[in-house]
Amino acid sequence: MDDRKQTDSRLSQAVEFLNIGSLEEMVNGEIDQASKLAFLTIFRSLAMLVGGDRKAMRHWLETENSAFGEAPIELIVRGEGLDSVVAYLERIRHPQG
User: Fold this and answer.
1) Quick one: 39 exposed, middle or buried, by C-beta within 10 A (0-12, 13-18, 19+)?
2) What helix, strand, coil percent values describe the chain, rounded to 5?
3) Could you read off the pLDDT of 6-22 as tens digits, one per residue?
4) Which residue pairs, CB below 8 angstroms and at least 24 apart, start in 22-25?
5) DSSP 13-41
6) pLDDT tens digits, residue range 36-60?
7) Which has more pLDDT, 17 or 90?
8) What is the phi/psi pair of residue 3, to 5°?
């Protein structure tokens, strides 16, 4: 399986796991490869932080976050802020200090 098909497959699995309608709409639309990879990074980081707990992952994505001034899912589905959400989760997973 080539990299694009593998990414698409993983993305579909992640979206199906989370079962968030707005994410399904996003991935069924035309999004670029970089955005797909960014979302997968968000999914993996968040899964690691909460032990893969679907309910906790959905809660984090759908709840307003003071770092963003809105729910992370809003930034993700609009496509803007994907990098901000990735960077935020990476800082939590790998704090400097």
Assistant:
1) buried
2) 70, 0, 25
3) 767 777 777 776 777 66
4) 22/73, 22/77, 23/73, 23/76, 23/77, 25/77
5) HHHHHHT-HHHHHHHHS---HHHHHHHHH
6) 788 888 888 999 999 989 899 889 9
7) 90
8) -60, -40
**Predicted TM-score (pTM) of this structure:** 0.78
Mean pLDDT across the chain, nearest whole number? Answer: 82
Q: Which tokens go with 54?
A: 């679907």
Tokens encoding 47 = 């899964």
Distance CA 2, CA 79 (A): 25
Tokens of 15: 């979206």
